[in-house]
Specification:
With 238 residues, this protein is an alpha+beta fold. The protein folds into 2 domains: 14-139, no CATH class; 144-237, no CATH class. The protein contains 4 helices and 7 strands. The chain has helices spanning 4-12, 19-64, 75-139, 155-161; strands at 151-152, 179-181, 187-189, 197-201, 205-209, 215-223, 227-237. A hairpin with a 5-residue loop joins strand 2 (179-181) and strand 3 (187-189). Helix 2 packs across helix 3.
Length: 238
């Protein structure tokens, strides 16, 4: 079992899921916008209201990183996608206002498409930048995956260094079967459903529980657009 202080820390940091709230808000917004649009512009107005609510809602869902949006696990690419989602939401709403109730559905779709293009461009630029950085590290002889060096720190230090974060929202299935150095001193193989992911931290880091229950380890997820292995950063023994 995990040390009581560590278990308390991670449990206290849990936050309620936003997915249900986002879905409920989008559904209500669609119904209201469709009804208002029908009253203001007939069938075309109703369609405009529906398009605006769906486009704005989906863009905001991407910006919030809601489940089902399939954001990249690579942090810079993920940020680009979130900015693109916000851009799509704003452009869709602005396009609809520009086109009015009669033609707002068309200008709203154009605005959303432009926002999606922004997300694609930002994601590509981020991936290209990371690719150049990794290529430079490899040419300098630096490791691209697990280095094997792992600092074992006291529990209090570990809690301070892993404060914050959120419950894991990453899709971890691509990590299955890949090894990571654990603070217990052994090498374990990650398996979704059996390897305990205690927290998701910034900088593409995860807090993993030891399968034997006597250690926790903070690892970095490496890769550009595809997973390239874990790098164990530090851990503590419980």
């Amino acid at each position: 079992m995990l040390d009581h202080r560590l278990a308390t820390q991670f449990a206290a940091a849990e936050s309620p899921s936003r997915e249900g709230l986002v879905i409920a808000v989008v559904i209500v917004a669609c119904l209201l916008a469709t009804g208002v649009g029908f009253g203001a512009g007939g069938l075309l107005g109703a369609f405009t209201g529906f398009v605006v609510a769906m486009g704005t809602g989906s863009g905001l869902a991407i910006m919030l990183g809601s489940k089902g949006t399939d954001l990249s696990p690579v942090q810079p690419v993920r940020v680009g996608q979130k900015v693109g989602g916000l851009s799509a939401a704003g452009a869709c709403l602005g396009g609809a206002v520009l086109g009015g109730w009669r033609w707002g559905w068309a200008t709203g779709l154009v605005g959303y498409a432009l926002g999606a293009a922004v997300a694609t461009i930002l994601g590509w630029k981020a991936a290209h930048s990371i690719g150049n950085q990794v290529a430079g590290e490899q040419s300098a002889g630096l490791p691209a995956t697990e280095s094997g060096s792992l600092a074992v720190v006291p529990p209090g230090d570990f809690m301070a260094r892993t404060a914050g974060g959120r419950p894991n929202q990453m899709n971890t299935t691509p990590y299955d079967g890949h090894p990571f150095h654990c603070a217990c001193g052994a090498i374990h193989y990650f398996e979704t459903g059996s390897t305990e992911v205690l927290r998701e931290l910034g900088g593409m880091r995860l807090v993993l529980g030891c399968p034997h229950g006597n250690a926790v380890t903070c690892v970095k997820v490496r890769g550009i657009l595809r997973f390239a292995g874990f790098q164990s950063l530090f851990g503590t023994q419980t």
